[in-house]
Write a structure and sequence with these properties.
Pfam families: MFS_1. Helices cover about 85% and strands about 0% of the residues.
């Protein structure tokens, strides 16, 4: 008897994940509004670029200390409740700044929001497979990616409008309201926590189990390597784009906004393509395709002598950025049990974000020594190396499946 595979309709898919996507989109918008407005205010208060840099470093530090605890927390408790509470915590944290705004309270808010951001992002990645189902995981990840890209374009505009019309207080008030609305949108989410076999285990035992999975599971180690190479290449160039446009190309620095807009447009176009497919693409194909597109785009930037070439290159980079991270996340979500995804994603995100931070520091140091074109070319080779590793892994996996099918 032939086995029939039932593919859920898109209507049922969007009914299942609609509240999560809406809540995630608003929370992402709130994060962009807050960061833009508060960075402008922090620089106005201090006049120091170091103070702004310290804001981002402080946001990252909580994940350095709490990664194993956060992951176990996500896997142990109701993920719907976690999404609700983190959005409420964000709204309250931002609201405190309406009462007392100072450098100290801004840094305190950065710490609390950094913890909430890490919990929220990992929880959204962990809960997605339970709502969307294995067939639609790439579409779910494309929706998250598209939401982030749209907010990357819209968020700074809203923040700038709020600050110009009513000052930083208006920006903070709007942001607190956005986070509170995101919390309300979590409530209709059709999610029931699964019974976990590990629920009887103690918190420390579950935390150790998560670390063992990250350190010993082959698929996690493979995706970790590929994701680290991707973010090393993207991270080392991301902070240099504005300097490349103004110093190397001799163009006005505000052209940087156009570059980011074209990259965002590429991500949106790539995400729409993935979502519009009748059958979701194979994640193992998305990774090498995306890495090749990003690597080619970075190589094109390293040789560019006109603004049009840079814009075209970043449109290509955006297309790749819609595919490669989607494939990496989808692979982890499909091949690992949902009960461990919180621990896996927090640990993996910590490692790759650390690599990204180190690559930014190294590129900033080397830019004045080797020149930015060489850094962009080296970053391209790094990403292409990750793409080659993903392609080789896919070939080995395909060959293994063929051998398995030939066995009597």
């Amino acid at each position: 008897m032939n086995r029939i595979t039932v593919i859920p309709s898109r209507k049922s898919l969007y009914a299942a994940i609609g509240p999560l996507i809406a809540a995630y989109s608003l929370a992402s918008l709130g994060s962009y509004i807050f960061d833009i407005g508060i960075i402008v205010e922090l620089y106005r208060m201090t006049g120091s670029p170091a103070a702004v840099g310290g804001y981002f470093i402080i946001q990252f530090l909580p994940s350095l200390l709490l990664t194993p605890v956060i992951g176990t927390f996500i896997d142990r408790w109701s993920r719907k409740r976690i999404l609700l509470l983190t959005n409420l915590m964000r709204a309250m944290t931002v609201g405190i700044l309406l009462i007392h705004l100072s450098i100290e309270t801004i840094y305190l808010a950065a710490v609390l929001l950094g913890i909430c951001d890490e919990i929220y992002a990992a929880t959204a990645n962990a809960i997605g497979p339970e709502l969307a189902g294995p067939q639609d995981i790439p579409r779910f990840n494309s929706l998250l990616s598209a939401a982030d890209s749209i907010n990357l374009i819209v968020g700074p505009a809203i923040a700038g409008l709020c600050v110009s019309l009513g000052g930083i207080g208006t920006s903070i008030g709007v942001d607190a309201a956005v986070f509170a609305l995101a919390a309300l949108l979590v409530l209709p989410m059709p999610y029931k926590p699964q019974r976990k076999a590990s629920a009887k285990a103690g918190f420390l035992e579950e935390m150790k189990e998560g670390l063992r999975i990250v350190a010993g599971e082959p698929v996690v180690k493979r995706m970790l390597l590929i994701w680290a190479l991707l973010l090393a290449g993207v991270g080392s160039t991301g902070s240099l784009v504005v300097a490349f446009v103004s110093r190397t190309m001799g163009l006005p620095a505000d052209r940087y906004g156009w570059v980011m807009a074209f990259q965002g447009a590429g991500i949106i176009a790539g995400s729409v393509w993935i979502m519009s497919r009748k059958r979701a693409p194979d994640p193992s194909r998305l990774i090498p395709f995306g890495m090749a597109a990003i690597g080619a785009g970075l190589l094109a930037v390293s040789a560019a002598d006109r603004m049009a070439a840079i814009l075209g290159a970043y449109l290509l980079i955006g297309l790749g950025a819609a595919a490669a991270p989607n494939g990496i996340r989808s692979t982890l979500q499909k091949e690992l049990a949902p009960a461990v995804l919180g621990r896996v994603f927090t640990s993996v995100r910590f490692v790759v974000n650390s690599v990204r931070t180190l690559s930014i520091a190294a590129a900033s140091f080397l830019a004045g020594i080797t020149g930015m074109r060489i850094i962009f070319a080296a970053a391209a080779l790094c990403v292409l190396l990750g793409g080659a590793a993903a392609y080789a892994g896919r070939k080995r996996r395909t060959a293994g499946l063929h051998v398995e099918r030939r066995k009597p």
